[in-house]
Every structure is written in structure tokens, then in C-alpha cells.
Design a protein that fits this description.
This protein has helices spanning 42-45, 68-71, 81-93, 108-120, 137-143, 159-166, 171-185, 206-219, 246-258, and strands at 29-37, 50-55, 77-79, 99-102, 127-131, 149-152, 196-200, 225-229, 264-266, 290-295, 299-300. The longest helix has 15 residues, at 171-185. It starts with 28 loop residues before the first strand and ends in an 11-residue tail after the last strand. The strands form two sheets. Strands 1, 2, 3, 4, 5, 6, 10 and 11 form an eight-stranded mixed β-sheet that branches. Strands 7-8-9 form a three-stranded parallel β-sheet, with helices on one face. α3 packs across α4 and α8 packs parallel to α9. The chain is globular. It contains nine helices and eleven strands. Helices cover 29% and strands 17% of the residues. Residues 304-311 have low confidence and may be disordered. β10 (290-295) and β11 form a beta hairpin.
């Protein structure tokens, strides 16, 4: 972190001295919420729900980010190793099926340290890495002995889309390489695939989805599950200003048949913004989707007030 190269941007800033890179964060870990979440794919949600931990900051700049309040909006609170470990253990105590770390690519060293401390205190749940896949080989190597299952996005393989929508024209090459490495680190075991590759369809850009599905068929089929997502929501004026339509949806389902992709999941088409999180609330999601365990303003749920760390 003294000359940061955790992600492909390789900003080179000294984050240990509180400098901040593109991600907007220094070397300390800042998180926004932790909850028992029931809106993930079936293997992730399980019976008890997924123990999601939302990390603040991001190494991408997605113009239609659905978590924009925490990715670039400044919401979140610094936590030290002890508090992060306590959050993991609280999720386990509340019945979570796993620890699902969301968008932590820029905070890998602190997260590895926190998970290690939690393991030493009795954490036995599998750890999931839920990321954009915009990660360096060095960061993935640091995670190799910490992460049990990977949930990477493959947002696009089109460099112009990557530049215009994600502020990262090199996203396609780095994301594809990162996912290949994830599948190498966690190949299928005991009939279970331990990588789920997510793709969010973008309204008006069907060829981008076709490219991703073709790549999956050629590189990941048999090694990973596919999750085709239709939940694109217009949250500002910079991205497409509409939802996925029925024609785009049916075309994409036809491509699944064309490329013989059967192993995975696809969302039903339900254009709505009701599920969008609001991280100002103790429970950012609807009560049907989520049960709060920790929040950046309130600390642990039911604690009577914020629990501050020494970070």
C-alpha cells in the first residue's frame, strides 16, 4: 500500500500515510453495513441468508452504480481489525450461511487481516468475494487462502463501454484474466462450482451481453455458474435512462440456448426500483430482503447506539 498497486489502476499513492487513490480510500478499512441478505443466488443465500458486508469506496466509476452512496458518496465508517472480526462473528451468530464481502478490491490487506482475526476467534463460515473482477494478480494472490468462493462481475468485454460507463477502458482484459485466475484457485469440488460469474445487462447494448455469454461458453462452462442479471435501474442521467425491455430479455434468453448455457441462473424481468438500497437507513434494503446486523451510523443492531472502533 505504500505505492499502491492493488488494482489495475496502479495509482502508486502511499495509502499508508492517508493518501487516497482512485478508490477514494486510504489504507484503513471503511464499511457501510452488514446484514443477513436474502437477495443473492440460491447457493449464496442458502436457508439462513448471506452475511453481506458492504465495503465503502470502489476502484471503478460505474455511472449507474446502484450503491453510489457508498462507492463514491462517502458513506461508511472506519473499522479496525477487532471490530471487523466482531462483525463477522455477529453475522455467524445470527445464522448467516457465509461471509459475503461486497466490493472490497481496494481493501484486500485489511480484509485478509480481519478475516484471519475472525477465524482465530471462531469464525467457521465460508468467505465469499463479491467484486467487479477489476483486480490485479497480486491482490488475488493475497486472497487465495482467505476466500472460499468467488462472485465476480463480468460487466463487459467492450472497451468503449468500459471506458464510457465504468471509467476503465482496460476493464475487459483485466476482468477476464482475474476470473480465469479465480476459477484456477477454486475449481469445482464435490460437484459444487465455487465461482459464480455475474453479468448485468445494460439497456440498449445487447451485443455486449452476447460477447459475455460467448466468452462464458468458451472459457467458463463447466468451471463456473452464470448469473444473468436484469436489475439495471436508471439511478441518474449518465447511463441509459430506462429498464431492460421484454425484447432484450427474450433475446438474451435465446442466446443462453444458442451457447448451450444451462448451469446457472437468470433473473425474471421485473422493472422496479423498489429494491434499491439506501445506506442512510439502518436496514438499507427492504425487510423482506435483509435483516441488519451492523450499520455505519448505529453500530451493532440492538446495541442501543453506535459502537466505535479505534480506527
Amino acid at each position: 500500500m505504500t505505492k499502491c498497486f492493488l488494482c489495475p489502476r496502479r495509482c502508486g499513492v502511499d495509502r499508508e500515510t492517508r493518501e487516497k487513490g482512485f478508490c477514494g480510500e486510504d489504507a484503513r478499512l471503511r464499511i457501510a453495513s452488514a446484514s443477513i441478505h436474502r437477495g443473492e443466488e440460491p447457493p449464496v443465500t442458502g436457508e439462513g441468508g448471506s452475511g453481506t458486508i458492504f465495503v465503502s469506496g470502489c476502484n471503478l466509476g460505474c455511472v449507474f452504480c446502484q450503491n453510489h452512496q457508498i462507492s463514491g458518496g462517502g458513506m461508511g465508517r472506519l473499522v479496525d481489525t477487532a471490530e471487523f472480526a466482531a462483525i463477522c462473528l455477529a453475522l455467524q451468530e445470527k445464522g448467516a450461511e457465509n461471509i459475503n464481502i461486497v466490493t472490497g478490491s481496494h481493501a484486500v490487506p485489511a480484509i485478509v487481516e480481519g478475516v484471519t482475526a475472525a477465524r482465530e476467534k471462531g469464525l467457521h463460515l465460508p468467505v465469499l468475494w463479491n467484486s467487479s473482477a477489476y483486480e490485479s494478480p497480486e491482490a488475488l494472490a493475497l486472497l487465495q487462502n482467505t476466500v472460499d468462493m468467488y462472485l465476480p462481475d463480468l460487466k463487459t468485454l467492450d472497451t468503449s463501454i468500459a471506458e464510457n460507463f465504468f471509467h476503465a477502458p482496460d476493464y475487459p482484459e483485466h476482468a477476464a484474466a482475474a476470473i480465469e485466475k479465480m476459477m484456477e484457485y477454486r475449481p469445482p469440488a464435490d460437484g459444487t462450482k465455487r465461482v459464480i460469474i455475474r453479468h448485468l445487462m445494460i439497456p440498449g447494448y445487447p451485443e455486449s451481453t452476447r460477447q459475455v455469454l460467448r466468452w462464458f461458453a468458451g472459457h467458463a462452462k463447466g468451471k463456473a455458474l452464470l448469473s444473468l442479471m436484469t436489475q439495471y435501474t436508471p439511478v441518474n442521467q449518465q447511463g441509459p435512462g430506462r429498464f431492460i425491455n421484454q425484447g432484450e430479455y427474450e433475446t438474451a434468453l435465446g442466446w443462453l440456448e444458442e451457447f448451450d448455457i444451462e448451469d446457472g441462473f437468470y433473473q425474471e424481468l421485473e422493472p422496479s426500483s423498489d429494491w434499491l438500497p439506501d445506506f442512510r437507513r439502518t436496514n438499507p434494503f427492504s425487510s423482506a430482503l435483509s435483516r441488519p446486523v451492523w450499520h455505519w451510523k448505529d453500530g451493532f443492531a440492538g446495541s442501543g447506539g453506535p459502537t466505535r472502533s479505534g480506527a
